[in-house]
Design a protein that fits this description.
- This protein is of the alpha/beta class.
- About 50% of the residues lie in helices and about 10% in strands.
- It contains 13 helices and 10 strands.
- The protein has a 7-stranded mixed β-sheet. The protein has a 3-stranded mixed β-sheet with strand order 5-10-7.
- α1 packs parallel to α12 (about 320-345) and α11 packs antiparallel against α12 (about 320-345).
Length: about 375
């Protein structure tokens, strides 16, 4: 075994590259979580009546049974101020109408519908617009019937962020425990980019159906104007259009979470397709994509470079370089695994640690597959056909 200049330089390069791979990582940049959410007790919200009145909007499309099961979870929130739950269904949905009659005596419930005559606009976005107009309160909390509050303090915890200088509050949604591990991993992986962007400056988007905004902003800027040609992407568009610099709060307390149903493979793919369809219309996408792409390039190039140096060292019988490179590769994989595990545990995701690093490597290939499927798909599937 010889210690020549090639061995020394090669070992130095491997050490630096492995260190950069650990640092240039969305899970490593998680310190913003401790600073972003307000404390559990805040001086300005120490009294219950300081919390603002809220209107929760839930839209339905063939979801009567889910609504029957989950509506009590929304109506029975432990909230000291006034709130209403606005259910927006489709005209002629008799099953929904029958179920809502059982809750007719609840003072928190309000029901409206979208007419069947509506054409050439996204019915989801139209339903949200109808709900906002029907809401009696300034602060709107939008979620989906596929989600359920994690507890009775959901409204209270989200509302503590409704300060004068804020106009958006990004909450967290988590997949149910039975979700595929990769689905949960990718969701949290994306969430770290989403929340960091909001905490550090101006929010770009959200991948969670747990969003608060102001009714006055929505009406003053014509709601979904500029995005009605796309069927979905409503949460992304609302954040992208209405976020201002440092006007978005993020709420990560478990009390504020909503639990989302396990998506089918088709629903999972469509989530990605809707984002791909709408991101060209979104502002601030370059800085968001730059950081995301830098992370992806770093993890793959570092892995490729270290494996290449190991192969070179073995071929040229530089065993010190080979051993150093193997140790750096193992250290890099273990460090990223531990960092990822801590980041996932912050959102109470419990998955085998050995899956984390392979999942990180596989994300780019999943994204590439989604892009290929999207380009092959009929674009009319993602538009309201107003083209």
């Amino acid at each position: 075994m010889t210690l020549d200049y090639i061995t020394i330089i090669g070992a130095a390069v491997v050490m630096v590259v492995s260190l950069l791979s650990v640092i240039i990582n969305p899970f490593f940049r998680r310190s913003f979580l401790k600073k972003a959410s307000p404390d559990e007790t805040r001086d300005d919200y120490s009294e219950g009546d300081a919390l603002p009145p809220l209107s929760v909007i839930i839209t339905l499309h063939d979801n009567a049974r889910e609504m029957e099961e989950r509506l009590p979870l929304y109506l029975n929130q432990n909230y000291p101020s006034d709130f209403q739950v606005v259910i927006v269904s489709e005209e002629g949905d008799s099953e929904t109408d029958d179920i809502l009659k059982r809750f007719a005596g609840d003072r928190h419930l309000y029901h409206t519908f979208i007419p069947n005559s509506s054409r050439y606009v996204s019915r989801k976005k139209l339903a949200i617009t109808m709900g906002v107009k029907a809401a009696k309160n300034e602060w709107i909390l939008l979620t989906d019937i596929e989600c359920r509050p994690a507890g009775e303090n959901w409204l209270r915890t989200m509302a503590r962020n409704a300060r004068k200088e804020k106009n958006l509050v990004l909450g967290v949604s988590k997949y149910a425990d039975e979700a595929k591990p990769y689905y949960s991993f990718e969701h949290i992986h994306t969430l770290y980019y989403v929340l960091r962007k909001a905490a550090k400056g101006t929010a770009y988007r959200t991948n969670c159906a747990n969003l608060m905004f102001r009714k006055s902003d929505f009406l003053a800027q014509n709601g979904f104007s500029g995005n009605l040609d796309l069927q979905r992407g409503e949460y992304d568009f609302l954040v992208n259009k209405y976020a201002g610099k440092h006007t978005t709060a993020i709420e990560t307390s478990p009390d504020a979470w909503v639990i989302e149903d396990l998506p089918t493979p088709k629903e999972w793919r469509n989530k990605h397709f809707y984002y791909l369809a709408g991101r060209s219309q979104m502002q601030r996408r370059r800085s968001y994509r730059l950081l995301y792409n830098m992370d992806q390039w770093t993890i793959h190039l570092s892995l490729l470079l270290i494996i290449s140096i190991i192969a070179f060292a073995v071929i040229t019988q530089r065993w010190i370089l080979a051993g150093t490179s193997v140790l750096c590769l193992l250290s890099m994989a273990i460090s990223r695994t531990l960092t990822g595990w801590k980041a996932l545990r912050a959102f109470e995701e419990d998955m085998p640690s050995w899956k984390i690093y392979p999942y990180e490597i596989s994300i780019v290939w999943h994204n590439l597959a989604n892009i290929i499927r999207y380009k092959r798909a009929d674009r009319l599937d993602f538009t309201s056909h107003k083209l």
